Amino acid sequence: MTGLKPPPSSVLDKYHGDAARPLYTGRVRVSGGEARHGRASGVVRSDDGALAVDLRLPPELGGPGGGTNPEQLLAAGYAGCFHGALVLVAARAGLVLDNPGIEVAVTFARDPVDGLYLLSAEIVVYLPGMDATLAAELVRNTERVCPYAKMFHRGINHVVRVAVA
Fold first, then answer.
1. Per-residue confidence in pLDDT tens, the chain, 165 aa
2. DSSP codes, the chain
3. What does pTM read for this prediction?
4. Are 63 and 55 a contacting pair, CB within 8 Å?
5. What distances in angstroms separate CA 125 from CA 69, 96, 130, one per listed residue?
6. What is the dihedral of CA 95, 149, 42, 158, to 10 degrees?
């Protein structure tokens, strides 16, 4: 037994304040690796050492595969967050879920607006044995809680800074 437990449903209690209150910041750094290109041969490391990933272009983009890619990492984050939020929302509503599953597809595509690139995401929520109406309501409520779902719906605060030192 590992002792791992989900957070209490009290994490769903509403926050009242005038500004966002940071709770945690995940930090990673990507270097270019062998090809000196983050997407083709990047090396990802988190500041705490818990994440160590080699990035590789998938064969669909002309690469060799053999590593992960940014779309998979984004899909994993979205799926993990949505699953956690779903379980908490269900628990708060007194619902017992029978092995729910989340599948996320993040697609890297050409953008017809500017001719460059864009991302899109599709999420499928598996709720075996649950009434369809109740399942749809649970998913809608989860979308209101999951920060990844909110990011995909509303956008995200985004700052780009340049450091030359």
1. 689 999 998 999 999 999 999 999 999 999 999 999 999 999 999 999 999 999 999 999 999 999 999 999 999 999 999 999 999 999 999 999 999 999 999 999 999 999 999 999 999 999 999 999 999 999 999 999 999 999 999 999 999 999 999
2. -----PPPGGGGSPP--SS--------EEEE-TTTT-HHHH-EEEETTSS-EEEB---GGGTS--SSB-HHHHHHHHHHHHHHHHHHHHHHHTT---SS-EEEEEEEEEE-TTTSSEEEEEEEEEE-TT--HHHHHHHHHHHHHH-HHHHHHHH-----------
3. 0.93
4. no
5. 23, 15, 11
6. -140
